Structure to design on (288 residues):
């Protein structure tokens, strides 16, 4: 799933490549992605692209007073093409959900696609006059790159949830998902299962500093990358996430995994839990 660094990089990519262009035809290949109908998606056509922004993990394109907002969800992505097909796509064929054609001042006619891999289609698109009217944006907590250390301390002290849960809850802290929460907790040497309110002052300070460092570094690696290469850049920068069974680059222990529902997270026992192996709920069920 694209998280804060990748969405920020996509917003910067659109600021560089789309701002100043005029929106042309919009091809909808999957009607299910449209979550608003008034104004209609066609209302964006003919408008100047005036900006691109990030709200948590939401990507928003400003078009002369209207906003085209998308949440890429777990399998979504933005793909840019300098030479898109002039033919409208066939609905329901392949991963394409939405294509936005553009006309640049230089006379070029690029387009960007919103695509979604997998069988579970959760990519969502809204056309609104105010991003705050998108329910998911209205519910966002403070942005992970804007929150202050005292604010983070208050947030943690008021929660009895596990650290992993707090970091990925968008209504509590916006922008961090499964992957970067793994990286942040590993770098801060904190257990995913630790209670948020149990952290001492030094641990809160370490978590705050690490959170900013990990995210800022990831943004720096991502911004300027071609949109097609961002996923690879994200994977290459991970130390524990997605690396179950591999060697921890810090201590040499084996990276472990905990699976639950449709997801899993990774951690290093030596670095984060004092050597203790956390219970894997999936395996626990199998052993019963």
């Amino acid at each position: 799933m694209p998280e804060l660094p990748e969405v920020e990089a996509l917003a910067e990519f659109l600021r560089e490549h789309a701002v100043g262009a005029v929106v042309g035809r919009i091809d909808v290949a999957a009607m299910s992605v449209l979550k608003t109908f008034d104004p209609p998606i066609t209302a964006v056509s003919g408008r100047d692209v005036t900006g691109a922004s990030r709200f948590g993990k939401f990507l928003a394109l400003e078009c002369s007073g209207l906003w085209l907002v998308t949440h890429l969800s777990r399998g979504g992505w933005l793909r840019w093409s300098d030479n898109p097909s002039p033919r409208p796509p066939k609905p329901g064929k392949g991963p394409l959900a939405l294509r936005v054609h553009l006309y640049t001042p230089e006379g070029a006619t690029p387009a960007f696609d919103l695509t979604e891999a997998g069988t579970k289609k959760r990519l969502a698109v809204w056309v609104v006059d105010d991003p705050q009217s998108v329910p998911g944006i209205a519910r966002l907590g403070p942005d992970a790159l804007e929150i202050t250390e005292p604010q983070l301390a208050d947030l943690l002290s008021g929660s009895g949830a596990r650290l992993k849960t707090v970091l990925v809850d968008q209504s509590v802290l916006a922008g961090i998902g499964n992957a970067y929460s793994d990286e942040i907790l590993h770098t801060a040497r904190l257990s995913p299962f630790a209670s948020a309110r149990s952290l001492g002052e030094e641990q809160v300070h370490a978590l705050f500093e690490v959170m900013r460092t990990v995210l800022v570094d990831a943004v720096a690696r991502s911004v300027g990358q071609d949109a097609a290469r961002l996923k690879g850049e994200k994977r290459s920068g991970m130390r524990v996430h997605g690396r179950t069974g591999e060697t921890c680059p810090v201590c040499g222990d084996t990276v472990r995994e905990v699976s639950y529902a449709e997801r899993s997270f990774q951690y290093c026992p030596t670095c984060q839990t004092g050597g203790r192996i956390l219970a894997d709920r999936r395996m626990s069920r199998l052993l019963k």
Notes: The first strand starts at residue 22 and ends at 28. The chain has a mean pLDDT of 92.
